Amino acid sequence: MRILGLETSCDETSAAVVEDGCRVKSCVIASSQKDFERKGGVIPEDAARKQLEVILPVIRKALDDAKCTEESIDAIAVTFGPGLLGSLLVGTTTARTLASVWKKPLIPVHHTLGHLSSTWLFSPNQSLNPNPNPSPVFPILTLSVSGGHSDLWVRSSHISGTLIGSTRDDAAGEAFDKGAVMLGLPYPGGPALAKLAEEGDEKTYSFPNPLEKEHTLDFSFSGLKTSLKYLLRDLEKQESIQPLRASIAASFQFAICRHLCSTLEKAINSHPDIKEVHIVGGVSANERLRMMTRALGEKHGIIVRWPSSLRTCTDNGAMIASAGYFLVQEKPEMLGAEFETSATANLEKLLDHSPENTARKATSQKSQNARKQVKIS
Ligand code: KG4
Ligand code: ZN
Fold it and tell me: Has this prediction a pTM greater than 0.70?
């Protein structure tokens, strides 16, 4: 089955052709990141305007690169949410129009489900496949870390799973981005901070390890951000921080990765049935995180995978095509299903079927209410 996948949830416009959920025939990504580098973040209206201009040429290039035409596409998968509403609408409106003109069924895909499928993707001409086995095996413990979310899932299939932990405040990518802004680095901060960290010593400054002693699989990054703020303030009182920036970046990056890894390790210990650990989302491109999760996998004798190319870590159309394929394999009614574009679409609701999930949800609702009460008082 050959699917054209479209992804426009943030500042990227991407189209890809993927066969049987795995083989990437083409993947084109146009980004307006350069426009936002010095603004510290995306301006939603500007992003959508740019996407409107580039989406059709991007789709045309994806078809050309895959050496196919619209006739040989079996379906169109499109991100319906969550994300920036204007950007999402550019993608879903284009997809609806093309589906109608080309007479192809549409598959609505949740953005995060796309990331969860990204470890299945490979490019036929990719000489180096870092994954030890050809195809992942369930149950899988997946750490999904991007600019919008930080979640831990135990998945028993592509579309069934339990959310066992998530962030209580900022997402991991957001922590990188905000830290980068404090260090005067351009948007998006993650890659810039990681690059600066290469020249520094991560043992120079110590940061707390959030929630380390708590019996929880949740994440919290706002404390790290505050620690960085005070560290910079204190250092600036004494000296110029310019020569110290690389070591500050390295120490901050290490703190984020250590928090992710210690939570992952708690989850590995409490879920002995899992067969593999997957790291997905933009932050999975981080080399230090890869090194640390690889070591964790070796310690526990468990396969660790991340997307096989850097471009499939961050937002891309191939992961949407892949998720669309696996979605219709398990739920054929999703081929041509009605859907609404939604800036706040919730994946847990979509995947939630088992009694175990319902029980967890009730507990998580209780703890969320408790958290809200704490905040109010
Ligand atoms: O998945 P993604 O492309 O978009 C969202 O769904 O949010 O993730 C983007 C996030 C940004 O916060 C970016 O700074 C972060 O991923 N990121 C990285 C790296 N590359 C991207 N963070 C750390 N190290 C990287 N190499
Ligand atoms: Zn994403």
Answer: yes
CA of 279, nearest ligand number: 1
Q: How far is the CA of 15 from the centre of ligand 2 (A)?
A: 14
Q: Is 5 in the pocket of ligand 1 (CB under 6 A)?
A: no
151 within 8 A of 364, measured Cβ to Cβ: no
Residues near 130 by beta carbon (within 8 Å), at least 6 away in sequence: 305, 306, 308
Ligand nearest to the CA of 188: 1
Q: Which long-range contacts (CB under 8 A, 24 or more apart) does 45-54 make?
A: 45/86, 47/10, 47/11, 47/84, 47/86, 47/87, 48/84, 48/86, 48/87, 48/89, 48/90, 50/11, 50/13, 51/8, 51/13, 51/87, 51/90, 51/91, 52/90, 54/13, 54/30
pLDDT at 65: 98
| Rg of the chain over all Cα atoms, to the nearest angstrom | 21
- Residue from 314, 319, 347 whose mutation best tests the ligand 1 pocket (most atoms within 8 A of CB): 314
User: Residue with the nearest Cα to atom 3 of ligand 1?
Assistant: 314
Asked if pLDDT for residue 373 goes beyond 80, the answer is no
CA distances from 108 to 3, 81, 118, 132 (A): 12, 9, 16, 31
Ligand 1 pocket check for 188: Cβ under 6 Å: yes
> Which residues of the chain form beta strands (DSSP E)?
2-7, 12-19, 23-31, 75-81, 106-110, 140-145, 150-155, 161-166, 276-280, 303-305
Check residue 200 and give its pLDDT.
Answer: 98
What pLDDT, on a 0 to 100 scale, did the predictor assign at position 239? 83
Please give the single-letter amino acid code of residue 161: G
| CATH of 140-306+353-373 given 1.10.540.10, 3.30.1490.150, 3.40.50.10380, 3.30.420.40 | 3.30.420.40
Q: What are the two backbone dihedrals, phi and then psi, of residue 253, each rounded to the nearest 5 degrees?
A: -60, -45
pLDDT tens digits for 24-49? 999 999 987 777 776 767 888 888 99
Say how far apart CA 161 and CA 356 lie, in whole Å. 10
**CA 16–ligand 1 middle distance (angstroms):** 20
For residues 118 and 109, the answer to whether their CB atoms sit within 8 Å is no
Residues of the chain with CATH 3.30.420.40: 2-128+310-345, 140-306+353-373
